[in-house]
Amino acid sequence: MATSIQPLGQRVLVKRLEEEETSAGGIIIPDSAKEKPQEAEVITIGTGGKDDNGNDITFNVKVGDTVLISKYGGTDVKLDGIDYLILMESDILGVLA
């Protein structure tokens, strides 16, 4: 998926994965009662950076990874009607297998 946003530095552009709209008991959960999903797909990674010694910093995530993110971190952005989130790679809690 191509986007017109290129994150800078150690930032990552992700798209939150939608949660189920019905509970285990079959009850439909309205949008206003849903929590923000903590799973997201990595769409684009940033330009990277340099450490204190001038060496390149490598990313631990790659495009297409499903990651676990905090509920309230990052900056929400909307592009072509799709909601994305830009956050620092260090704010990613883990990569889901």
Explained architecture:
The chain has one domain: GroES chaperonin (10 Kd Chaperonin, Protein Cpn10, Chain O). The protein is about 0% helix and about 40% strand. The protein contains no helices and eight strands. A six-stranded antiparallel β-sheet has the order 6-7-1-2-5-8, with no helix packed on it. A two-stranded antiparallel ribbon has the order 3-4. A hairpin with a 2-residue loop joins strand 6 (about 75-80) and strand 7 (about 80-90). It is elongated. The model has no long low-confidence stretch (mean pLDDT about 85).
Write the layout of secondary structure elements.
Blueprint: E1 11-16, E2 39-45, E3 49-50, E4 56-57, E5 66-69, E6 75-79, E7 82-88, E8 92-95
Antiparallel strand pairs: 1-2, 1-7, 2-5, 3-4, 5-8, 6-7
Name the helicity range.
Answer: under 10%
State the low-pLDDT regions, or none. Answer: none
Q: What's the CATH architecture?
A: Roll
At the fourth level of CATH, the homologous superfamily is GroES chaperonin
Gyration radius (Cα, Å) is: 15 Å
Task: Give structural attributes.
mainly beta; 10 Kd Chaperonin, Protein Cpn10, Chain O; two-stranded antiparallel sheet; 97 residues
